[in-house]
């Protein structure tokens, strides 16, 4: 309860807020930190894709009289479509995997927050550490991997029908 936000609240003359005893706010905290954690990777990939676009394409659009907004809408965004689809496939492939490090580092073993913040990975960890239930943990991990594979294959099939050259295989 002595973090940055509580320090700011106290300096503003307000009461401290007990984050770890109020489970309702954690779905927003987790989403915020997950976006904070993953945005950098996506931005680096998009930046690499944008720098890979030939300057001749932008020059041709400029000569044709396209404004900056039109060059973004009609040159940059369409040429980023394959990068967007690839990042979407990677993101959907990892959707069932969760983010154990994020959840465990923020929540830890606070059982008050389990019903709001529990994911498959933290359940497997607790069942393995708490009861040494190796068979159940392995089965849950296997199901998680199989469903993730099915999800990636399904999305890739949909992408292949819509945009064949953007599919993974």
The structural class is mainly alpha
SS elements, strand count: 0
Briefly note the CATH topology name: MetI-like fold
Say which CATH homologous superfamily is assigned.
Answer: MetI-like
Named CATH architecture: Orthogonal Bundle
Cα gyration radius (Å): 22 Å
Beta-strand content: under 5%
| Whole-number tally of structural domains | 1
The chain-level mean pLDDT equals 89
Order of helices and strands: HHHHHHHHH
SS summary, helix count = 9
Silhouette: flat
The residue fraction in helices comes out at over 70%
The biggest sheet amounts to:
none
Domain ABC transmembrane type-1: 1-159
Membrane topology: Multi-pass membrane protein
Main location: membrane
Transmembrane segments: 25-51, 72-96, 134-159
How would you sum up this structure, described in words?
It is a single chain. By secondary structure, this protein is mainly α. It has one domain: MetI-like (MetI-like fold). It is built from nine helices and no strands. Helix 5 packs antiparallel against helix 9. The chain starts with a helix and ends in a 7-residue tail after the last helix. Its main location: membrane.
